[in-house]
Specification:
There is one protein chain. The protein folds into three domains: about 130 residues, Orthogonal Bundle (PCRA, domain 4); about 120 residues, Double Stranded RNA Binding Domain (2-Layer Sandwich), CATH 3.30.160.800; about 55 residues, Thrombin, subunit H, CATH 2.40.10. It contains eleven helices and nine strands. The strands form three sheets. A five-stranded antiparallel β-sheet has the order 8-7-6-5-9, with no helix packed on it. About 10% of the residues have low confidence.
Length: about 325
């Protein structure tokens, strides 16, 4: 439709200005056709396309032709990836690197993941079927507060000042909470920690913290590491449980830090990583080495006498040690 066309014709910026758009609209009005007809068949309407318009036309025509061949020769995800690559929309957001653009990138990633999941359930789905199904997931009417027995979905920021009998905090995984964009500085981590505290203290009676052991991201199944904020909670106040998804046909990689930690009793003061590996250290803990100085434990692998610690030191070195033979001191 014309509204959608005019929204994307110069997004990201490709040199199609307001005067060009106005000429296209005038030509469409005079000839009684749509703006896309003018762009797609310029010669038929004696309209000469600029190089930028020609490039836009070629991109759109390529995507239209691909969409017609779903699912015979292309999958839904192929079209989605082509749109992002050919239009360079995601790249333009990455180059912008603002809070708003990062939020839009997260929305794009969530949308792409939803396509891969839909494809997993409906391998022969067409684009029309996908669009029809997701449109049914959006409520057509506002409730205007008339429904009392319902789940309220909101961000942690929007939950400030509110309280609920039961609260679920989802996505308690490294890279999500704390967010990857905040994990490279102590100030960023501290801000995420404060935000997590806000979310936790919204619960009056019961609090559930959930995380995925595996996630599908752009068609790839990845292990997830449990959020460090879970590890910082007093173990005697927590009850740990694991649940298995119905997606048992996924090609899942080896177990992650979420794996069956509820199967072992957690002693007071032990971390999640300590329970799984038997290490006396935990990921993200600060330690001191007699030769290399102060560093941070980045990964813990193995169990028992074969526990290996990978440590990133402040001097720039990253080293892996067998814990049993390495004189490390924990730093509070």
């Amino acid at each position: 439709d014309s509204v959608s066309l005019l929204r994307i014709i110069n997004t990201p910026t490709r040199g199609i200005g307001a005067s060009t758009i106005e000429k296209i609209r005038d030509a469409a009005y005079v000839n009684g056709v749509s703006e896309w007809d003018i762009i797609a068949n310029g010669e038929a309407y004696a309209y000469k396309l600029s190089p930028a318009l020609t490039e836009f036309k070629n991109i759109m025509q390529k995507l239209i032709d691909k969409a017609k061949e779903i699912p015979m020769h292309y999958k839904l995800s192929d079209i989605c990836i082509s749109i992002l690559n050919d239009t360079q929309y995601k790249k333009s957001l990455e180059d912008e690197n603002s809070i708003e653009s990062r939020g839009r990138i997260e929305n794009i990633d969530a949308f792409v993941n939803s396509i891969f999941e839909y494809e997993h359930l409906h391998p022969q789905a067409t684009l029309d079927e996908f669009l029809q199904d997701i449109s049914l997931l959006t409520p057509a009417d506002e409730t205007n507060g008339t429904i009392q027995d319902a789940v309220t979905l909101m961000t942690v920021h929007n939950a400030k000042g509110l309280e609920f009998p039961v609260v679920f905090l989802t996505g308690m995984e490294e890279g999500l909470f704390p967010h990857a964009n905040s994990s490279d500085t102590e100030d960023g981590i501290e801000e995420e920690r404060r935000l997590c505290y806000v979310g936790m203290t919204r619960a009056k009676d019961r609090l559930f913290l959930t995380g995925a052991e595996i996630r599908r991201s752009w068609g790839t199944v990845k292990n997830q590491e449990a959020s460090r904020f879970i590890d910082e909670l007093p173990s005697q106040l927590c009850e740990f449980k694991s649940y298995h998804s119905s997606y048992d046909s996924w090609d899942t990689p080896s177990s992650s830090s979420f794996n069956t930690f509820n199967a072992r009793s957690r002693k007071n003061g032990n971390s999640l990583q300590s329970v799984i590996t038997g290490s006396r250290f935990r990921v993200h803990q600060r330690v001191k080495h007699p030769s290399y100085g102060i560093g941070i434990v980045t990964t813990i692998q193995g169990t028992g006498d074969n526990v290996k610690l990978t440590i990133q030191f402040v001097n720039g070195f990253t080293k892996t040690f067998l814990e049993r033979y390495t004189p490390l001191e924990p730093i509070s």
